[in-house]
Amino acid sequence: MSVLSKRSTVYLEPEVHQALKIKAASAHQSISEVVNEAVRIALLEDSEDLSAFEERAGESTLSYEELLADLKAHGKL
């Protein structure tokens, strides 16, 4: 863990805590390292999702009914 690390109190369900302990032990990591990695991955996925939304912001939209009609017209339904 980095010298510049911050402390936080996180309340975990007992089953989640037990699973984290087992995962950390099997990976030869601390629980903090496992949690940091999981949070980093989740934040990266969120960032990628937001980027995709921004890229597609200018696209036209279809109503649900239009989508169904298009899928039927192309033999997908």
Chain-wise SSE layout:
Blueprint (H helix, E strand, L loop, with lengths): L13 H13 L4 H25 L8 H10 L4
Helix pairs in contact: 1-2
Which keywords apply here?
77 residues; mainly alpha; 62% helix; 0% strand; elongated
Q: State the helical fraction.
A: 55-70%
Radius of gyration: 21 Å
Secondary structural class: mainly alpha
How far is it from the N-terminal to the C-terminal residue, by CA?
A: 53 Å
SSE pattern? HHH
Low-confidence stretches: none
Count, helices: 3
Mean pLDDT: 92
The counted number of beta strands is: 0
- What is the approximate shape? elongated
For the sheet with most strands, the description reads:
none
The fraction of residues in strands falls at under 5%
Describe the protein in words.
It comes from Candidatus Methylobacter oryzae. InterPro entries: Arc_rbn_hlx_hlx, Ribbon_hlx_hlx. With about 80 residues, the chain is mainly α. The chain has a domain at about 30-55. It has three helices and no strands. It has helices spanning about 15-25, 30-55, 65-75. The longest helix is centred in the middle third of the chain and has 25 residues, at about 30-55. It is elongated, with a radius of gyration of 21 Å. The N and C termini lie far apart (about 55 Å). The model has no long low-confidence stretch (mean pLDDT about 90).
